[in-house]
Amino acid sequence: MNTVIFRTVAPYLAALMVLFSVFVLLRGHNEPGGGFIGGLIAASAIAIYGIAAGVDEVRKALVFHPIAVAGLGVFLAGIAGLMSLFVDAPFLKGLWLFLELSDGSELALSTPLLFDIGVYCVVVGAISSIALALEEDEETR
Amino acid sequence: MAKTPLPKNLELPPAMIEGATSVADWVIVWPIALPMLGAAVLLMARKRPEWQAPFAFLILLATLVANVMLYLRVQAEGPLSMTMGNWLPPYGISLTADSLSALFSMVSAFILLIVILFVQSEIETRENKYGYHPLLLLLLTGVSGGFLTGDLFNLYVWFEVMLIASFGLLIIGGRKIQLDGAVKYGFLNFLATTFFLIAIGFLYGLVGTLNMADIALKAPQVEGGAIAAVAALFFLAFAMKAAAFPLNSWLPASYHAPDPAVSAVFAGLLTKVGVYALVRTHLLLIPQSHGQLQVVMEVVAGATLILAPLGAMAQTNARRALGFLVIGGIGAMMAGLAIGTPLGVFGLAAYAVNSMLVMTALYLVVGLVERMGGTSDIRKLGGIYRANSWLSIMFIVLVFAVAGLPPFLGFWPKMILVLAGIEMQSFWLVGLILLNSILTSIAGSRLWAHIFWRDGREGVNSEQINTKIRPLPQRAVVWGLLPTGALVAFIIVAGLWPEPLFRAGGDAANDVRLASDYVGAVFERVPETKGEGE
Amino acid sequence: MEIALACLIGLFFTVAIYLLLSRSLIRMLLGIAIIGNGVNLLIFTVGRVTREVPPIVPDGEYAPLEPIANPLPQALILTAIVIGFSLFAFLLVLTYRAYQELDADNTDTMRVAEPEDSPRPPLSY
């Protein structure tokens, strides 16, 4: 697997996949997509980069440990649910905030989005930590 | 997005809650949300091992307070329900607590609080880094969620949360025996939850809903064999989760593999969620199935009651023997389920509380014994009484409690179960419950005699002092012996003053019997017109 | 349609149970994967197979314009797939580690936790 072509292409491919995963995450509210599928794409990007550049390189590039990213995801999802405490609504009620931008368009921020970002982080963290663990094992043999 | 105004002629059935939800109702969310958020924070703070223990302790303390508040609220005002996301039941996922679930959830939080102290006596920084504390909190999230949820599919999700957390705890440390135990635990439990999922699918096909209260309204009207088959599938899945005979083989294969504190949490909490789910499905959701399956339940209960203590007697590993005693307790609870009268459920709930507390304490005591003797092989132990008399007193008290000898805690639930059996005229079940007490006390006192009472090891002159015994280090006395002692003291006091247990068990049985209260609490907010429309 | 799906589910379960009864862990893993798919198909089928349109409300509307398919079974399947996938990934890693550490893919030879030649319990007392 460790050919020159692959090693050259892998960083660009991984970057493109991460970008695409964010796109999929953000369009997920009303169209096909969402946090889970976006997270899987990002985790595959990390796995590909890991095969090409080595696991140590990936861990350095990620800065945070994948499990910590998963923890952040659980935290964000939980916070998204707890937001409704302040509007006297039950747990996990969807809350929306519409921001008018200067060019007249509208930016919709919501707790479902926050929840989805949380799911994205959980999936990226959990799946990439499994993938990296397996790849690390492959390298040391 | 939502820009066009609502058309005038649109007529939709009400699906969203109108009006505010009181912040006081959130008390049902905190027992689940607090440990989950705590686990998340601790996962993020993995580079700060020194924060982990204090933070986990504070979170657990807060969780216990939330659980106590929930329990008091349920005691005072009857079952409490909240449907998530502003939807009306049955469209949204409900969290519903009655006396049974609130009681179990409260005891679980209490046990984890004790264990998190005990854990400090044994973990090293390496294990700390690998997420011991977050996984324990995540396990409590799954257990509390399982107890407090009012939605069958959500129960499946909590089962899986529990399963993933327990996988993690099982293999922390990565010793060979742990991997071996984890493989068996993993495959068999995954299979059990798969059966559960199959049953959920069929039940949804039959009644078209997954909200427990809604099922309790609709399932009794379904006639025929299909619903009985679904109920049998539920019984299979949950009996496997509860480790009832003959589906118990995963428990003694895995519970002795991890660290003693993890074993203690598993023994205290995991199987009880299965028992709780059995009570919910067979007495509340599909009540007609109880009569159809009663014979099966009685046979399973009887076989579990007898074979488990016999299995305990045949073990050389102390913790494996305790694993069989856990299963014996499951047999007593299954007997309560098979009897199925309010008195039977009373006995079941009280016995479950007893079993949660006592089995956890037993594993903790044996964990300390292992620290002193360096092994859990009862042939090589011996002479602990001479080295540490407190441990041996605690162990014998706990053996009496698990066997059900007066005046200890286990006696009262067994008494209730026997009374319930006599009331139902199922005398052979009563006989088996009593026989279980005798066999359990034989198995337990054999363990006590071998580990504590005799001076030397197997095969040497019994007068000879066992030189392999080391005294407990200071850290193990402070963090290990004191919390365990506190738990045992609690068990003794609760045994001598059983009125709270009686009240809690009686209330739980009452709530299980009064399905209308449970259903009423869930559908409280639904406008009147909706019921006739469908 | 239901009959064909029911036969397919039956086939899935047959294969899965056959694989799960095997002694080899890797076959059991495949069985776990297949039984998961069988269950998903089962939920899909018992949720009624209809020819309605997907349950998507058009932009600017508040209710679907024509009868829609029931979205709940799909939500259940999605959740079950996610959970099944994560547990499968975990079991895969676990099996791989067990294979490395214990040098056993055969459940008959995995006897560390329950030793085959475990000594008999002491007979005193």
UniProtKB/TrEMBL annotation, chain A:
It is found in: Cell membrane. Keywords: Cell membrane, Membrane, Transmembrane, Transmembrane helix. The keyword Transmembrane applies. The keyword Cell membrane applies. One of its GO terms (cellular component) is plasma membrane. InterPro entries: CPA3_antiporter_subunitB, MnhB. Residues 5-128 form the Na+/H+ antiporter MnhB subunit-related protein domain. The chain crosses the membrane at residues 12-29, 35-55, 67-87, 107-134. It is a multi-pass membrane protein. NCBIfam families: PRK12509.1, PRK12573.1. Belongs to the CPA3 antiporters (TC 2.A.63) subunit B family. PANTHER family: NA(+)/H(+) ANTIPORTER SUBUNIT B, NA(+)_H(+) ANTIPORTER SUBUNIT B. This is Na(+)/H(+) antiporter subunit. It comes from Maritalea myrionectae. The lineage of its organism: Bacteria, Pseudomonadati, Pseudomonadota, Alphaproteobacteria, Hyphomicrobiales.
TrEMBL record, chain B:
Residues 150-440 form the NADH:quinone oxidoreductase/Mrp antiporter transmembrane domain. The chain crosses the membrane at residues 23-43, 55-72, 92-118, 130-149, 155-173, 185-206, 226-248, 260-279, 291-314, 321-339, 345-369, 390-412, 427-449, 476-497. InterPro entries: CPA3_Na-H_Antiporter_D, ND/Mrp_TM. It comes from the Bacteria. It holds the Pfam family Proton_antipo_M. The keyword Amino-acid biosynthesis does not apply. GO terms for cellular component: plasma membrane. Keywords: Cell membrane, Membrane, Transmembrane, Transmembrane helix. The keyword rRNA-binding does not apply. Belongs to the CPA3 antiporters (TC 2.A.63) subunit D family. This is Na(+)/H(+) antiporter subunit.
From TrEMBL, chain C:
It is found in: Cell membrane. Its main location: membrane. InterPro entries: CPA3_antiporter_subunitC, NUOK/Mnh_C1-like. It comes from the Bacteria. Keywords: Cell membrane, Membrane, Transmembrane, Transmembrane helix. GO terms for cellular component: plasma membrane. It is a multi-pass membrane protein. The chain crosses the membrane at residues 6-21, 28-47, 75-96. Pfam families: Oxidored_q2. Belongs to the CPA3 antiporters (TC 2.A.63) subunit C family. PANTHER family: ANTIPORTER SUBUNIT MNHC2-RELATED. This is Na(+)/H(+) antiporter subunit C1. It comes from Maritalea myrionectae.
